[in-house]
Amino acid sequence: MSLIAIAGSFAPRWVDAALPLTPDGSEGRRLAEHELGDPVYQAAQPTVIDRIARAVAQFFERLFDVQLNGGWGSAFAVIASVVVVVVIVVAFIVWGVPRAVRRAPAESASLFGEEEARSAAELRSAAASHALNGEWDAAIVLRFRALARGVFERGVVATPPGATVHAFARSAALVFPSSATELEAAATAFDDVRYLRRPGTAELYWCVADVDDRVTSLRATVPDHAGAPA
């Protein structure tokens, strides 16, 4: 008897029970499910986009790989190509050339050198509250800011950081030429109150409010932005 056989005869019986070389059906299924549950396998699965792209690619492969007798396969591919082109041309005729979506400019947090994130409607409301209390300085400043923020929200006049009120008035006058004089007068009222420290009055406030209301009701005469130079 060989040494291997002799050693095997003395091996503990529990080794065979503890280490089955071939698991049965249910045990193999359990081990496979446990293995496939590993995140590594989940990450390797194709995504929905991958499946859609593969389906589209297979569709066109089948479309242009039709096997027809007598040389009709190439003719079918040509006809299919022509049909696709015709469909695209008809779509352009019916719906026109796709236009880029014109988005409103992002609201600037700065307005005439100061942080101001409120909308035009909010600024008008704040200005009206100050006017109601007879606080004309604040009312004039806020109403002019509402005017500038309003045309900016409409996308017709830009108010870049550093732009002055008179530069804004000149740019707005290009878009609303019938209100050019009133825009310049409103900018002067803002400067007098804000920078020259002259006292505001009800008359100046209503001057700014009137031009704001008028510009709001007018239609812009140019479609593109009119940048406000510094």
What structural class should be given to the helix and strand makeup? mainly alpha
Shape: elongated
Low-confidence stretches: 2-8, 14-19, 100-106, 223-230
Strand and helix order: HHHHHHEEHHHHH
Order of strands, widest sheet:
1-2
Overall average residue pLDDT: 74
Q: Count of helices?
A: 11
Strand content: under 5%
Number of strands: 2
**How far from one another are the termini?**
105 Å
Alpha-carbon Rg, integer: 38 Å
Largest sheet: 2 strands, antiparallel
Approximately how much helix is present in the residues? 55-70%
List keywords for this structure.
single chain; mainly alpha; two-stranded antiparallel sheet; 2 strands; disordered N terminus; disordered C terminus
